[in-house]
TrEMBL record:
Natural source organism: Pseudoalteromonas qingdaonensis
Transmembrane segments: 12-31, 37-57, 190-208, 214-231, 359-378
Lineage: Bacteria, Pseudomonadati, Pseudomonadota, Gammaproteobacteria, Alteromonadales
Designated name of the protein: PH domain-containing protein
Keywords: Membrane, Transmembrane, Transmembrane helix
Length: 381
C-alpha cells in the first residue's frame, strides 16, 4: 500500500507564521548592518520554515511525523508515531469550517486503548482521501447541532460536536483523581476564608496608613488575595478527606463504576454496575478566548471559544453525588472515558462561569502591573 499524500498539521502552519517577525528583524538588521543579528535571525527563520509535522499513510500504518526538512531532504526526525492499521479500532474525523480534527483510537502493545489526535487547517478532502486509501472505515462529524441550547443528546457524536477531539484527551484513562482542595466549600464554612482575607486586609490598611509604603501595600494586597484561596483550599481538602475511605479516585470501567466516599453525604464509597447508573449530568459552558458575544457567535468563529466542563453529577440507584467541579478533576478525560464505555451521559449548557481560574489570574496580573508602576513612580519621582 503506497500513498505519498501528506496532510500538513496546524502546528506546522503556526511555526511558519512565527517566522514572520524574524523576517522583519532581518530587514531591520540589514538596514543597520548588524551582521550578528542577521545571522541569528536567519537561523531562526530557517529552523521555523524547516519544521514539518505531517500525517501520512506508509507501510500499512498511519504515521504522524515531526521533522526538520529542507528542499525535500529530511535532516532530523524529532518525533514519529507509527500506528499499524490492524491496531486501529476507530477513526473519527471532525470537520469544521476551518480547523479539522482526526482522532485515531487504537490498542498499543499492552492492549491499552489510546487516542492520538491530529489537527489541520482545511485539507478536509485530502484527509478523507488518505483515510479511504487506508481501507479502514471512518466516521465524519460536522457541527450541525444547536450547541447553544440548554441540553444535548447523550451520544458520543454530540460530545465531539461540543468538545474538540484533541481537548478530550489522548487515551481512555480508567482512573480519574479528584483534587479535594478544588471541591466546592460546604455552606457552613463559606465565611471562614473571607474572615482570613479580612484580617490580611486590615493589616494592609494599617501598614499603608502608618508608613505610606505603597509597594509594601501592593505586596500585602496580593497576600490578602492569596490568603483567601489558601484558606479555601485548606478547608476543602480537610472537609472532603474521609479517614475511613481515603480514596479520592473515580474508576471508570466497561461494566463497573467506582465513586469515592467524598462525593456522597453519607461518606460511603460505591461500586456500581453500569445498569445502576441512572444518569450522569455534565454541565458545560464556553470559555471565551476572543469574542464575548456567545449567542451571536457563528460556526466560523468557534476557534475563538472553547467548551469547558463546569460540573459533573452522578445520579445512581444508590444515591446521588455532590456536584464535582470541572476544576477538581480532569473533566474532559473523565467525559471521554464515560462516553467511550457508553455510560448514560447528558450534556446541559450552564450559565456558570467556565474556567473561573482565569479571572483570578487576570486579577493577579493587574495587581502585579500596578505594583510595578508604583515602584517605578517612587523610584523616578
Amino acid at each position: 500500500m503506497k500513498n505519498t499524500q501528506q496532510i500538513t498539521s496546524i502546528n506546522e502552519w503556526v511555526a511558519k507564521g512565527a517566522a514572520a517577525p524574524f523576517v522583519v528583524l532581518i530587514l531591520f538588521s540589514v538596514l543597520s548592518q548588524d551582521i550578528t543579528a542577521i545571522v541569528i535571525n536567519t537561523l531562526f527563520v530557517a529552523v521555523l520554515f524547516a519544521f514539518q509535522q505531517r500525517l501520512l499513510l506508509q507501510a500499512k500504518a498511519l504515521v504522524i511525523r515531526s521533522q526538520f526538512s529542507f528542499f525535500g531532504k529530511t535532516f532530523c526526525v524529532i518525533y514519529e508515531r507509527s500506528i499499524p492499521l490492524t491496531s486501529i479500532t476507530e477513526l473519527t474525523f471532525s470537520q469544521r469550517q476551518h480547523k479539522n480534527d482526526l482522532a485515531i483510537t487504537y490498542k498499543n502493545g499492552n492492549g491499552e486503548i489510546k487516542i492520538l489526535s491530529f489537527s489541520c487547517l482545511h485539507q478536509a478532502q485530502q484527509t478523507m482521501e488518505l483515510l479511504s486509501a487506508s481501507g479502514l472505515k471512518y466516521s465524519v462529524h460536522r457541527p450541525t447541532r444547536n450547541t447553544k441550547g440548554l441540553q444535548a443528546d447523550d451520544t458520543k457524536e454530540t460530545v465531539t460536536d461540543i468538545f474538540p477531539l484533541g481537548a478530550l484527551g489522548k487515551e481512555i484513562k480508567p482512573t480519574h483523581t479528584i483534587a479535594r482542595f478544588a471541591m466546592p466549600l460546604p455552606q457552613d464554612k463559606v465565611l471562614t476564608p473571607w474572615v482570613t482575607a479580612g484580617i490580611f486586609a486590615l493589616v494592609t490598611i494599617g501598614l499603608t496608613a502608618s508608613s505610606g509604603n505603597w509597594v509594601a501595600a501592593c505586596v500585602f494586597i496580593a497576600l490578602t488575595y492569596l490568603s483567601y484561596w489558601l484558606a479555601r483550599a485548606y478547608i476543602s481538602n480537610k472537609h472532603y478527606f474521609v479517614a475511613a475511605s481515603p480514596c479520592s479516585d473515580i474508576v471508570v470501567k466497561e461494566e463497573h463504576l467506582f465513586l469515592p466516599a467524598l462525593l456522597f453525604t453519607d461518606r460511603q464509597a460505591r461500586e456500581l454496575h453500569k445498569e445502576q447508573v441512572k444518569r450522569i449530568v455534565v454541565k458545560w459552558n464556553y470559555y471565551i478566548v476572543g469574542k464575548p458575544d456567545i449567542e451571536n457567535a457563528s460556526l466560523g468563529q468557534q476557534n475563538l471559544k472553547h467548551a469547558y466542563v463546569v460540573d459533573v453529577t452522578f445520579y445512581t440507584d444508590q444515591g446521588d453525588t455532590l456536584a464535582l467541579t470541572g476544576m477538581s478533576v480532569n473533566a474532559q478525560a473523565l467525559l471521554l472515558a464515560l462516553t467511550h464505555w457508553h455510560y448514560p451521559v447528558s450534556l446541559e449548557r450552564s450559565n456558570k462561569l467556565a474556567m473561573p481560574i482565569m479571572v483570578h489570574v487576570r486579577i493577579g496580573a493587574v495587581i502585579a502591573v500596578i505594583g510595578v508602576i508604583l515602584a517605578s513612580l517612587i523610584k523616578y519621582f
